[in-house]
Amino acid sequence: MNTRNVIEIKDLTAKYDDRVILNKISLDIKKGEIFVILGSSGGGKTTLLKHIIGLLRPVSGEITVLGKDILKMELEEFEDVLKKIGVLFQGGALLNSMEVWENVAMPLEQHTKLPESTIRNIVKQKLSLVNLRHAYRLFPSELSGGMKKRVALARAIVMDPEILFFDEPSAGLDPITAAELDDLILDLQKKLGITLVVVTHELESIKRIADRILYLQKGQNIFCGTIEQAKALGNEEIDRFFGWKEKTKNI
Amino acid sequence: MNVTDGNTVTFGDEFYSSQIELLLKKIEEIKLATKDKIVLDFKKTKHFDTLALATFINFEKDPRINSIFSEEILKDIDEFKKNIDYDEKAGGEISGFESFVLKVEDFFSQMKSVIILSADIFYYSYKAVFNKEGRKKGSVYQQMLLIGNNAVPIIFLLSFLIGLILSIQSAAQLRQFGASIFLVDLIVIGMILEMGPIIAAVIVAGRSGSAIAAEISTMKITEELDALKVMALNPLKYVVAPKMLAMTVCLPVLTIIANMVGISGGFIIGVLYLDLSPDIFINRAVSVMTLYYWYQSMLKSVLFSWLIVIIGVHFGFNVKGGAEGVGKAATASVVAAIFSVIITDALLSLIFYFEW
Lengths: 251, 356
Ligand SMILES: Nc1ncnc2c1ncn2[C@@H]1O[C@H](COP(=O)(O)OP(=O)(O)OP(=O)(O)O)[C@@H](O)[C@H]1O
Ligand SMILES: [Mg+2]
Description:
The complex is a heterodimer.
Chain A lengths: L4 E12 L2 E12 L3 E6 L5 H8 L7 E6 L2 E2 L5 H8 L2 E4 L11 H12 L4 H14 L15 H13 L5 E5 L7 H18 L2 E5 L3 H7 L2 E6 L2 E6 L1 H7 L2 H7 L9
Parallel strand pairs in A: 3-8, 3-9, 6-7, 7-8
Antiparallel strand pairs in A: 1-2, 1-4, 4-5, 9-10
Chain B lengths: L1 E4 L2 E3 L3 E2 L4 H14 L4 E5 L4 E2 L1 H12 L3 E5 L1 H13 L12 H35 L8 H9 L4 H25 L5 H40 L2 H7 L4 H38 L5 H11 L2 H27 L5 H31 L3
Parallel strand pairs in B: 2-4, 3-5, 4-6
Antiparallel strand pairs in B: 1-2
Helix pairs in contact in B: 2-3, 4-9, 5-9, 6-7, 6-9, 7-9, 7-10, 7-11, 7-12, 9-11, 11-12
The complex binds adenosine-5'-triphosphate and magnesium ion.
């Protein structure tokens, strides 16, 4: 095991019922990098993410997170791993019965013994970080889609995780907010040394933040490496995705 | 669109879906008028929409229609046919018997998952008795208010009315035999053993069982459950255990209330209608009310409370679809809970009655 790899996946195969969604995916994610997962819609990106964070179990393969084989451990042990990662879901997934600040405070309240006042200060700081001071006492139903995402981000980083997973962080955000989110992501990586695993379709954002990319096509890993390497590869679908080669036939 | 000669219709540059109805009517008229083939001449037609296109394809199937299309139309028809060339049902046709088999299999797999789920719920709830970790502060207390406290008025009212009515109906019969005093036995045993636990369980299933199913299914479809899991919070600890603990305490307490209030309904009838003296009623009631009856009553209500929670949680976790699924989960959980409460009640009553 290479200590610089925070995530190692070997021959991961996943199915929903009988349909193969991921076919023998292998990859390593290095400490401190921003790793972007790309691919066409329905290609299996969300499914891959859910396997890495243990929400789904693969048919076969190995998944190692922070040096531990997550498929061979007890729930309690796995929860210790989970405390070191943060996840931002495609739809935010805030708890609707709680105010924004309670949502953000939840991991701290559950997993630390910090006094209430300290917790509140941490929550306030994280909410400022995502530009949502005014939303402190609101309920999730009173937020816009983009605000929900930012609250979910604040919640995901409230425990200062070592790895952060994002499923389409900028989908549905305006370009300005999306760019700010990218800044925030780069900031987190630089200041805290967080490893980020991001699923996204936004070309701008990929070009700005990605250290390495993984391209999934119908559950196959067709490329894993830097953007320069992808360009050099000359794969037709990847070229089309990035707009490096115009599609000749118009629709 | 104009009819050139008895059975030929010629079309202009455009043919849109708004004209279809008129055309179909015309075709019917021509069909009635002649036995010859009808000729539809679309040679000049260059502009048309999808509905028109789909109609053209249908004309091809009609043996009495001979349609002549422009090149544009022919090209688009080819394209259209390619796009509709796949099966609608991904899983293939299912016959009646197969669907019956599937239903039976589904029932057994549901049973299996209910058993596993119950084991998990018992495990985490038992642990939650001694350990407050992994749930929101004060959540058990909050659930007790919701499940127990808020149900008191309606249970009070309904069990009083049922006690009253049961007594009135039987009082008339008992008086004929001069056996008025046995009203006390009847109402005490009837309420404690049967009516009290059932009334409380049915009301709580309707109020809280459905609420549990609705809450959990909503959390599932909005991915809140997944979010809890990846925050290293077990939904069974965080969401379910507080409900289980609160329910296990509240339903027996509500049952005690229902029992006592129901009996006091009987007291009113006994004293006012059967002219029993209050002293006699109370003495008799106390002597009939053995600990063994109370033990049965409490046993029932504890079992019912677990049934209601487990069923609500099961339907919540297995929700399918969106908002509609939440409604279905809530309804299904109430029906299943009341059903299984009554079945369990019948079994327990038989077991106790025959002292098996
Ligand atoms: N719960 C499920 N049950 C059955 N099939 C599913 C389920 N979730 C996803 N799938 C299937 O798995 C495949 C991959 O889905 P996934 O959500 O991983 O795609 P994705 O790459 O994240 O797409 P998108 O970019 O649109 O979010 C799809 O074909 C989808 O139909
Ligand atoms: Mg997705």
